[in-house]
Write a structure and sequence with these properties.
By secondary structure, this protein is mainly beta. It contains 2 helices and 19 strands. Strands 5, 6, 7, 11, 12 and 13 form a 6-stranded antiparallel beta sheet that branches. The radius of gyration is 22 Å and the shape is elongated. The N terminus is likely disordered.
Amino acid sequence: MGFKRLLASMGAGGASVETELTELNVVPGGVVQGEVRIQGGSVDQQIEGLSVGLQARVEVEGQDTETKQDIEFTKLRLGGAFEVRAGAVHVVPFGLEIPWETPITMFAGQHLHGMNIGVTTELEIARALDSGDLDPINVHPLPAQQAILDAFGQLGFGFRSADMERGHIRGTRQRLPFYQEIEFFPPQQYRGLNQVELTFVADDREMDVVLEMDKKPGLFSEGSDSYRAFKVGLNDFQGTDWAAYLNQWLAQVGGQRNWL
């Protein structure tokens, strides 16, 4: 729950707004429920617009620099203009859909460090806009995503880090302006690997699973990457042994390149 005050330019005695989320735990394709409570100030005020959205803090790579940028990737307008009377409370419930591509922020019951996704609230009054603070949500993996994550765990891979990067992965169903990379460090049997990066790009039927295998640099050669992308149905993933599938690909690619 976040507490938000209107911009100072709106003057003393103005309304304040608070957003309460009914449930912080969601999955891609789900809905986050909540309500916006607007507390009237000492004077009547005309609210010109009210909306909620989802925002992510992503990495933006430049030529020599890397910066963070807040990107709002979905938005829901809650009705039209209305008046808040002095001292009155105006409550607006909402249900905000979570896009299927939304990155996960929870893994193995823990919050992924660096994953900042939450609900924003915007209140427009007297031609000014207050964006307020971010109310974080916990985005858990879909069952199909969990199956792939579990397969890495079964093979002995350990979680290293995760980030969200602005950009587009060619050949995928990606529609958002950014994507997530989940990085794993390999077990001893994959001795030639430095790390494996995993990306999910889902819609309501299936998802693209994108893997990037990063080779350790050798004494006489630099490190290099190898990519693999395949599709997984959200409702028919149970029939595949994903640990065996991943191991076969890793061994095949590594063997061809003398990595392993």
